[in-house]
Amino acid sequence: MVRFTAPRGTQDILPEDQPYWRYVEEHLHAIARLYGYECITPPLFEDTAIFERGVGEGTDIVEKEMYTFLDRGGQSLTLRPEFTASVVRAYIEHGMHVRPQPVKLYSIGPAFRYERPQAGRYRQHHQFNVEAIGEQDPAVDLEVMSLAWQLYDELGFHDLAFQINSTGCPRCRPGYMQVLKNYYADKLPLVCDDCRRRYEQNTLRLLDCKVETCQTFIDNAPRFLDYLCDECATHFATLRSYLDALGRPYTLNHRLVRGLDYYTKTVFEVWAAGIGAQSAVCGGGRYDGLAEALGGPPTPGVGFASGIERIILTMKAQGVEVPPAPKPLALIATLGEEAKLAGVKLLTNLRAAGIPVVLAFGDRSLRSQMREAGKLGVTYALILGAEEVKARQVIVRDMTAADQEPVAWDEILAWLKGRLTVSV
RNA sequence: GUGAGCGUAGCCGAGAGGCCUAAGGCAUCUGGUUGUGGCCCAGAAGACCGUGGGUUCGAAUCCCACCGCUCACCCCA
């Protein structure tokens, strides 16, 4: 019999890792609330066409990374590779254009991409996704970026690199792409194979090449920022003036591109050190053409997604500590059948009163039960034997102070309750 | 999809052709007199050495294939 393992690129988040998840998720909800974002939970899968149109036909995601399947009715569905398309779909479907604009939404949940796993990259990973839909004001771009900034700041991150760029709009992008093509035209024999392919199929991605020999060409390439239309240039300048006024450090990265029709103007990423090659903890930008591509009215939007696994990797790399999982206040140890019965009753009563207590199961020696209490890290051991049952009391042993005292049954609840707040 | 490294009990890990019916540590369980934890001591349980083939008198140790894991490329969270 072959042992089953979790599917490639997926992982069990074990109890010992849960404190990180819990801590992070609590922060996510809190920061979203602080910025006035409301939670939306879209389905895990959508009509495949939503991602084909919403992410873009030419992207790696759509070309080779989607978990697509036919359901029993023959419909093509896809496990979401990202949130934005789903959220915009929901915006259109539920007529959110009648709400005060922009509609500010966030989500937390898994996303799926069929890729070869490596450090910080999984086939099922989790994202914190933030979208502000229905407003083109650069102050919204700023807000979304600030949210990310404050989040990482509160989590205690340092040495983050904020990268920003603008990739124009359908009015100015074709012009710039032509300029870029003209620039590369006579260099094609010198660039790598991938770049020759990009030249034809995904021109902007020429700027993204990591091959050594292509670097000088990229460094000397014309920059999009010099070819933005007035509207895009003004938008970007305004955003930068806000960032500067707030003293937010960032790097202008003219190689940062999202070569898709629906992504417009602002693009940004946040990079963390020390978590491997996949260092982007956050990626986002503006997508003023997306809603239309999904069949809705023209609606601007900005947002970002942050990978929760990568956030946690960064926390571990940077030594950020999180509160440990709370332990039960007490363990009930019993000796003999009568005491066991009394113990079960006590257990039930204490729990009904909201006190976290566990019982040592099995008929074991007191020594063994006490060892369990020590291992679990409970504050008190409540010991019940024949004598205690007779006297209607329980011995309360303080595990840290290592002393103990008898407490009457009708007083034990109040006794523990008085110590609950201090010890938890 | 491509490349590299790795695959011995739940975890870490020795072992490099016969001494392996596979060391050690952590974790687990039991016990250390009669009802008490953390340290210590004793003992127990736990491995078809990833799978399948081959070489050899003999393989955890050599060869091949497959599978899996990890990291990197690509790209992204």
Strand content: 15-25%
Number of extended strands: 16
Q: Overall pLDDT, averaged?
A: 92
Distance between the termini: 45 Å
* Biggest sheet statistics: 8 strands, mixed
Low-confidence stretches: none
Task: Please state how the strands of the largest beta sheet are arranged side by side.
Answer: 1-5-6-11-10-9-7-8
Q: How does the overall form come out from the CA principal axes?
A: elongated
Radius of gyration: 29 Å
Structure description:
With 424 residues, the chain is α+β, with helices and mostly antiparallel strands. It is built from 15 helices and 16 strands. It has helices spanning 18-34, 48-54, 60-65, 84-93, 138-154, 173-185, 193-201, 215-219, 230-245, 290-293, 308-317, 337-352, 366-376, 386-391, 409-423; strands at residues 38-39, 45-47, 67-70, 76-79, 103-112, 124-133, 160-166, 251-252, 264-272, 280-286, 301-307, 330-334, 357-359, 380-384, 393-398, 403-408. The strands form 3 sheets. The chain has an 8-stranded mixed beta sheet with strand order 1-5-6-11-10-9-7-8, with helices on both faces. α5 runs parallel beside α9 (230-245). The two termini are 45 Å apart. It binds one RNA strand of 77 nucleotides through α3, β6, β10, β11 and α11.
